[in-house]
Design a protein that fits this description.
By secondary structure, the chain is mainly α. It has helices spanning 3-27, 32-51, 69-87, 89-110, 120-123, 125-132, 141-153. The protein is built from seven helices and no strands. The chain crosses the membrane at residues 32-50.
């Protein structure tokens, strides 16, 4: 989803919540001016909350150049996120697969391949299906490691 679409949806949600709040206040007997004054901050708060990242979103960042105790924390966090994705199809389709797809597309572009469909022979059927099939699920750790190794070898 592009940021403009996300902003538009958030703005529409905020407008709807503000309108409902204002209408509710008018129905309870508040003057229209006061209903507007109260509904505007409510709408602004909804807009702010809708644009904030969710607490469960992963902050993907490159690994540090040297190994430290923090690296093991990052690895265990990643392992727990992948475990959650293996049990929750929505997490896999909304968080893991887009990142794997972006990685595969970047590796293919380095080889001069424009699309995933053109790169299917390089990716192999397992990786291609994982990246493109809407019904694909999180593979087991061994299969995921094979897909990542294949991407690394591109």
């Amino acid at each position: 989803m592009t940021p403009l679409v996300g902003l538009l949806k958030a703005a529409l949600l905020a407008l709807a919540v503000g309108a409902v709040a204002g209408f509710g206040l008018v129905r309870l007997g508040a003057p229209v001016e006061w209903a507007v004054v109260v509904a505007l901050p409510v709408a602004a708060l909804v807009l702010l909350l809708a644009r904030l990242p969710r607490a469960t979103d992963i902050a993907w960042s490159p690994l540090p150049a040297h190994s430290s105790g923090a690296t093991s924390v990052v690895a265990s966090t990643l392992a727990s996120r992948l475990d959650e994705a293996s049990r929750d199809h929505d997490r896999f389709t909304s968080r893991v697969r887009p990142r794997l797809r972006a990685l595969a597309e970047a590796r293919l572009r380095q080889r001069g391949v424009a699309t995933l469909a053109e790169g299917r022979p390089l990716l192999g059927d397992t990786a291609y299906r994982l990246l493109t099939d809407p019904d694909a699920t999180m593979p087991n750790p061994r299969a995921l490691a094979e897909v990542l190794d294949r991407l690394e070898d591109l």
